[in-house]
Amino acid sequence: MIMHYSGTISTVSRVIQFNRIIYKIKYCYFSHQKSTMATIRSFSRLLSRQTLGTVISRGYADEMKLIFAAGNQVFYDSVSVKQVDVPSFSGSFGILPKHVPTLAVLKPGVVSVFENEGAVKKIFVSSGTVTINDDSSVQIIAEEAVPVEQLDSSAARDVLSKAQSELSSASTDQAKAEAAIAVEVGEALVKAVE
Q: Which residues of the chain have a pLDDT value below 50?
């Protein structure tokens, strides 16, 4: 088994070391020498160094780039931020640099973005997804999104009351499900403007 890799000189030297160790293992196996354990130990040390090098160079950052967009507007386009708080169906959570990679579905609610300058922007989302990558970048894609300061509290209450009346008068399962979703969004809207 010969490995081929085109990369940096240090990586090439590791591949050469790896190939030598594989050769030693094959030679010891076929010649039944007693040095098999020594060869296996050196092989495990090589893998340990390579694994450590992979962990060190994984690419975690002390900053977090945010992409936040909806069908009607792009709010952030690869902007560095301190923290993002998101509402998801598995529970609301905060995202900081070096967060574990995650994929979540957004539920209706407010996304809070803590900018590096200290400002906090609150944006209401109806639904969408949030993706956290291992390089500390975050993508939030919302179906609909509006800055909270642009929401009207009386209009939000009207949306909720209309959705509740539709839910009570719904006769089919599909109509009930659609009205229940509208009620959930209406409740989140009212809570966002309070």
A: 1-12, 33, 50-60
What is the chain's length?
194
Contacts of 171 (CB under 8 A, 6+ apart): none
Confidence (pTM): 0.65
Please name which of 131, 128, 137 lies closest in space to residue 110, comparing C-alpha atoms. Answer: 128
CB atoms < 10 A from the CB of 123, how many? 22
Position 14 scores a pLDDT of 52
pLDDT given at position 11: 46
Task: Look up residue 105 and give its two tokens.
Answer: 């579905």
CA–CA distance from 89 to each of 97, 106, 107, 154, 176 (Å)?
Answer: 22, 6, 6, 27, 20
End-to-end CA gap in the chain: 66
SS3 (DSSP) at 11: helix
